[in-house]
Design brief:
Layout lengths: L15 H16 L4 H11 L15 H13 L6 H11 L13
Helix pairs in contact: 1-4, 2-3
GO molecular function: D-arabinose 1-dehydrogenase [NAD(P)+] activity
GO biological process, one term: dehydro-D-arabinono-1,4-lactone biosynthetic process
Protein name: NADP-dependent oxidoreductase domain-containing protein
Length: about 100
């Protein structure tokens, strides 16, 4: 839904605080010459749950498919694991959080 992108959609249902924290992570990733969606994708591919090993990635263009495949190839050798950990710390207060869908 775009929350991890540099410019999330105005209609995004996340609380304002979460949007601000996500943007903090976006900036942190940009300062390290990468982007948050790639960090998150590699994390999901590298750290599957012991109960669930499927990862669903939404792509809206052929370029996004290419990036997703590249993330898969790089997931196990990702040099950005410490950056992913920093983002997890920033977003920790929203771990396991979900918003109503559809909104109330």
């Amino acid at each position: 839904m775009g929350l991890l992108s540099p410019k999330y959609p105005d209609w995004h249902p996340a609380p304002e605080e979460l949007k601000q924290l996500a943007q903090k992570c976006v900036s942190l990733c940009a300062d390290n010459d990468t982007d948050l969606p790639n960090i998150a994708t590699k994390f999901a591919l590298r750290c599957p749950s012991k109960y669930l090993t499927a990862t669903v990635i939404g792509c809206s263009s052929p370029e996004q498919v290419k990036v997703a495949v590249k993330c898969l190839a790089q997931a196990e050798i990702d040099s950005n694991a410490s950056l992913a950990n920093k983002c997890q710390i920033i977003l920790n207060s929203y771990r396991n959080y979900s918003w109503p869908s559809p909104p109330e």
